[in-house]
């Protein structure tokens, strides 16, 4: 299992097609892991590009961390990972919370980014987004796992439920993720969003409750284009080929 | 990484797969399970996607360039991935060896 040390913590990284000249880094969402890309989106992009996937702290097979879930810390981690992997400039894609990290990255380190792809990034000020954090309970978890996670179609067994439950418990009650996220609530309304000049692709589900966030970003980012894909917040799982092809076309456009 | 060149029988591949699964999910869970070639990863073995990533990495590390396991998985849709069982992987590895 490929592990690199970033800011003193072990990070699980997967790289495909290392020989390619241009690189794409993909960031997964909260409570998810790099597998959201590993099985279908990454292999397709890897037909043309060097693709880098990594697990965020406390997610997947990366080391746990009690603090540092704000976008500044998350982008510090990504920059350090790029340094470690000697990636000077990359195309960047992020899904959900990973989309927020990608946006912040383009704001803070534009010189390290070629093009930017944002999939289903929620408005952190949205009640529904914050509600996920506020309304957490075992009952809610079961509902959430059944309806909103990567494993949409799979009824979870006991071991998986326990595993996921432990992760949620850890993230919610032991780490600073709740307070860190609350501090980001004005992110979409901040003037820094409008400083993004990169070619930006926004991919949102036609039935997603985040679609309005996509429209808001489309209005705020000068060089953005929004594509609505049939599906809801889970479009990378529901439509992996559509997403992969949209990303490939976008990154290849000159 | 060790790359093997000798051809394995389906029984040998099955036992290797069981070893990888044990390494990924832990002996305590494997002991409670009756792993057969019909066992599906998500339903019977209750492996989640990141565990299947670990399992895939073990296959790739063991067989090296002999097989394109990720490429093979990427040709499947979600339903096929969910229904993926050990027997299908054994057949795929056997095909690649022939």
In short:
The complex is a heterodimer of chains A (254) and B (98). With 254 residues, chain A is of the alpha/beta class.
Structural class of chain A: alpha/beta
Tally of helical segments of chain A: 11
Number of strands of chain B: 0
The order of strands across the largest sheet of chain A is 1-2-4-3-5-6-7-8
Main CATH class of chain A: Alpha Beta
**Rounded mean pLDDT score of chain A:** 89
The CATH first-level class of chain B comes to Mainly Alpha
Q: Remind me, CATH topology of chain B?
A: Non-ribosomal Peptide Synthetase Peptidyl Carrier Protein, Chain A
**Separation of termini of chain A?**
35 Å
CATH architecture assignment name of chain B? Orthogonal Bundle
Could you characterize the architecture of this molecule?
The complex is a heterodimer of chains A (254) and B (98). Chain A has helices spanning 35-38, 41-45, 71-84, 97-108, 127-134, 138-148, 158-174, 177-182, 211-220, 235-238, 240-252; strands at 3-6, 9-16, 23-27, 50-54, 90-95, 113-119, 200-205, 224-229. With 254 residues, chain A is α/β, with parallel strands linked by helices. Chain A has a single domain (3-124, 188-252), classed as 3-Layer(aba) Sandwich (Rossmann fold), CATH 3.40.50. In chain A, strands 1-2-4-3-5-6-7-8 form an eight-stranded mixed beta sheet, sandwiched between helices. Chain A is globular, with a radius of gyration of 17 Å. The termini of chain A are far apart. Residues 133-141 of chain A have low confidence and may be disordered. The radius of gyration of chain B is 13 Å and the shape is globular. Chain A binds chain B through residues 1, 14, 16, 33-36, 38-40, 43-44, 55, 60-61, 150-151, 153-154, 156-160, 163-164, 237-238, 240, and chain B through 25, 29, 42-43, 46, 48-50, 52-54, 56-57, 70-71, 73-74, 76, 78-79, 81-82. Chain B: It comes from Pedobacter alluvionis. Chain B: This is Acyl carrier protein. Chain B: Residues 11-97 form the Carrier domain. Chain A: GO terms for molecular function: hydrolase activity.
């Amino acid at each position: 299992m490929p592990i690199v040390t970033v800011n003193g913590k072990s990070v699980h990284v997967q790289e495909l097609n290392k020989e390619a000249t241009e690189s794409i880094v993909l960031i997964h969402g909260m409570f998810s892991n790099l597998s959201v890309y590993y099985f279908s989106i990454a292999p397709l992009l890897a037909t043309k590009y060097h693709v880098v996937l990594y697990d965020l702290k406390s997610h997947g097979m990366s080391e746990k961390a009690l603090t540092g879930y704000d976008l500044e810390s998350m982008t510090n981690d990504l920059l350090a990972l790029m340094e470690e992997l000697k990636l000077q400039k990359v195309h960047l894609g992020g899904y959900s919370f990973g989309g927020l990290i990608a946006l912040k990255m383009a704001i803070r380190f534009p010189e390290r980014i070629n093009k930017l792809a944002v999939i289903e990034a929620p408005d952190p000020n949205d009640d529904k987004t914050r509600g996920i954090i506020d309304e957490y309970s075992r009952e809610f978890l079961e509902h959430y796992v059944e309806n909103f996670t990567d494993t949409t179609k799979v009824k979870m067994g006991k071991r998986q439920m326990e595993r996921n439950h432990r992760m949620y418990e850890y993230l919610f009650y032991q780490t600073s993720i709740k307070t860190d996220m609350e501090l980001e609530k004005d992110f979409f309304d901040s003037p820094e969003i409008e400083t993004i000049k990169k070619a930006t692709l926004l991919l949102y589900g036609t039935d997603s409750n985040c679609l309005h966030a996509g429209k808001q970003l489309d209005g705020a980012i000068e060089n953005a284009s929004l594509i609505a894909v049939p599906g809801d917040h889970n479009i990378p799982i529901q439509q992996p080929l559509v997403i992969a092809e949209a990303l490939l076309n976008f990154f290849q456009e000159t | 990484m060790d790359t093997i060149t000798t051809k394995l029988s389906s029984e040998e591949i099955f036992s290797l797969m069981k070893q990888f699964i044990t390494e990924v999910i832990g002996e305590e869970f494997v002991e409670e399970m009756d792993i057969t070639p019909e066992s599906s990863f998500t339903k019977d073995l209750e492996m989640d996607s990141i565990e299947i990533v670990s399992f895939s990495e073990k296959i790739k590390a063991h067989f090296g360039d002999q097989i394109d396991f990720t490429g093979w998985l990427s040709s499947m849709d979600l339903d096929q991935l969910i229904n993926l069982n050990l027997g299908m992987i054994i057949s795929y590895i056997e095909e690649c060896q022939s």
